Amino acid sequence: MRAVTWHGKRDVRVEDVPDPAVKEPNDAVVRITSSGICGSDLHLYEVLGPFMAEGDILGHEPMGIVEEVGSGITNIKPGDRVVIPFNIACGHCHMCGMELYAHCETTQVREHGMGAALFGYTKLYGHVPGGQAEYLRVPEAQFGPIKVPEGPPDERFVYLSDVLPTSWQAVAYAEIPEGGSVTVFGLGPIGQMSARIARHLGHRVIGVDGVTARLDMARRHGIEVIDASEVHDVPAEIRERTSGRGTDSVIDAVGMEAHGSPAAKLAQTLTGLLPGAVAAPIMANAGVDRLAALMQSIDSVRRGGVISITGVYGGMTDPMPMLRMFDKGVTLRMGQAHVRRWISALMPLLTDDTDPLGVMDLTTHRMPLEQAPEAYAMFQKKADGAVKILLRP
């Protein structure tokens, strides 16, 4: 089959790789019909190379048609249309019983002290082949795959794999009071949907970004925006708009590669130039994140407010302004999305033909799998108005 493979910094290729097969009773093989490129994939493209191996298959936002199932599978069958959550969970362990599926004890990558295995996301998360491919082997298929209706286009449902549950969790973790306010830093796919979900739930939303296409998309969905390329002091502007207090909550949908962190950017760049065996322990034991968005989040939230972090961070000893956070009484919530936990809330919104979350206005580019290298470069450069790209085998 054809698949998108990693070969180094900013070097992804579409190559022939062996077809996946059922290996365990709880496996399934899915023929992929759509697979998104995630902002987290760009971290692999740019920063997290030391944790990758040449030839790794990328991608963790797939959906498709079930082709084959193992002997232990009764919940899905060949021909079913399914979305595959990005994290791999068993559904029956202690953590899954608490609906903390990103910490599944069956698939935890204990060798590296990490949580549940993820599709297509480094040796830290299990080295599981990803879904930017023609076919995907799905472990723990007795729980993971989400059946969706026939008929509507893939764009209606594919974002159940990551974007929508991650955004729903970001809003839930933000604990916005009834009729309250939230700032969303970063209006990429997660920020867009977090803002729309918060607005759908009746909150005032201020979105912050510096990319015109992203700001325009947010405006289309009724989001109040701040253009970070034009406003010198974003937290001051947010306080100005909120009676001097700041918003009740903040969602950081940016993560480790925030603009405005020149020293950390240099550290990331230099680390990325080192051989993987040297760079990996440095990244695992150092503060290498670009923290501009997180620092602005701390300055933008009101006293006693909540910051929900959904952007991916990778450093171990990043400096944090503890005095400022303690004095303001800030609460932090963060972590990988527990995908299956939020599906029951999201599915009625996706099967509603009025499209209340505007999921049909998120994909900006639909490209053949064979054009994945061009798609990655476009997304990384935010070129041609790219906000969300779907690859189709």
Shape, please? Answer: globular
Cα(first) to Cα(last) distance is 10 Å
DSSP strand (E) fraction?
Answer: 15-25%
**Average pLDDT value?**
92
SSE topology string:
EEEHEEHEEHEHEHEHEHHHEHEHEHE
What is the rounded Rg? 20 Å
Count up the helices: 12
Low-confidence runs of at least 5 consecutive residues = 260-271
Helix content: 25-40%
User: What is the number of beta strands?
Assistant: 15
Walkthrough of the structure:
It is a single chain. The chain is 28% helix and 21% strand. The chain contains twelve helices and 15 strands. The protein has helices spanning 39-46, 94-97, 163-174, 189-200, 212-220, 234-241, 262-273, 276-284, 292-300, 322-328, 343-351, 372-381; strands at residues 2-8, 11-16, 28-37, 62-69, 81-83, 135-138, 146-147, 181-185, 204-209, 224-227, 247-252, 301-309, 331-334, 365-368, 389-392. Strands 3, 4, 5, 6, 7, 14 and 15 form a seven-stranded mixed beta sheet that branches. It has a six-stranded parallel beta sheet with strand order 10-9-8-11-12-13, with helices on both faces. The protein has a two-stranded antiparallel ribbon with strand order 1-2. Helix 4 links the parallel strand 8 and strand 9 (204-209). Helix 6 (234-241) runs parallel beside helix 9 (292-300). The chain is globular. The model is unreliable at 260-271 (pLDDT under 50).
Describe what is shown at a glance.
This protein has 12 helices and 15 strands. The chain has 393 residues and is α/β, with parallel strands linked by helices.
